[in-house]
Amino acid sequence: xxxxxxxxxxxxxxxxxxxxxxxxxxxxxxxxxxxxxxxxxxxxxxxxxxxxxxxxxxxxxxxxxxxxxxxxxxxxxxxxxxxxxxxxxxxxxxxxxxxxxxxxxxxxxxxxxxxxxxxxxxxxxxxxxxxxxxxxxxxxxxxxxxxxxxxxxxxxxxxxxxxxxxxxxxxxxxxxxxxxxxxxxxxxxxxxxxxxxxxxxxxxxxxxxxxxxxxxxxxxxxxxxxxxxxxxxxxxxxxxxxxxxxxxxxxxxxxxxxxxxxxxxxxxxxxxxxxxxxxxxxxxxxxxxxxxxxxxxxxxxxxxxxxxxxxxxxxxxxxxxxxxxxxxxxxxxxxxxxxxxxxxxxxxxxxxxxxxxxxxxxxxxxxx
Length: 368
Fold this sequence. Notes:
By secondary structure, this protein is an alpha/beta fold. It has twelve helices and 17 strands. It starts with a strand and ends in a 22-residue tail after the last strand.
């Protein structure tokens, strides 16, 4: 697979390191409007071909796939250009800023017959994959309740850098710079973590969003800090379970932690993922009476990067697809509407609602 890297920021470095570890993958070019950042990135990974625009890279054309690691609002136009050129696309999350754009990207990719995948990175967490297998095998019985949280502390900690002075963080706090806040940034991760792990989908949502004052006048330089910092959701799942999902950047003491608890009639599971590792615990059988939780061993799984490379090699589509990510984007869009209107929304009737971008939200295609 000959891979083009579009965008050479922090996440691109992580992606390329993973792609280069795969046999048969060659990173043949890189694109960035920032020439200094581009040179540093390309020098580090020994990438010869360097382009300041995607148009230049497409005109060159000596690649068959691309990873789109641009800011959120750039995903739509750049992915469509790549698809039009017949290139397979691996796109960072979220797929787009709204469901209408995400659906257009999905339908265009499907019509073109190119491999399309979204880097929902926590699919790489082996305990999550094993939890889903156990749910699908009926080991938990009927699922009744689901809890999921995504906790970060970079608004109170400098462990990853200082958001007050670094543009790579500041843009994530500003809707004017293409951010939908913590809901748009990591909300898609925890929604996928919950629904995928519990082997179901969301069909109703009621959400609350909160933006806290972080600077005098709510602004730092050109960045108006108006994107949401925290959200909570009450959701209904298509399997009949009730769920609570929340995320925040104010979780002091939690650098980057995802947690999922799935409660069923026969047993329960807990998945925890932190920067230093992942765990799966369960409570089953006689342990239910004494509330004893035991560790469950989990085999390694293929990463999104490995599965994308294999999909390109074989021409066989793999998950998570653009369509799946678009459906998650629909939940995010309606969560924003739910906050504004202070009411629960039914995703199956969402064609009657307006998205935050005043674009009609087509009916959801449920994909488990």
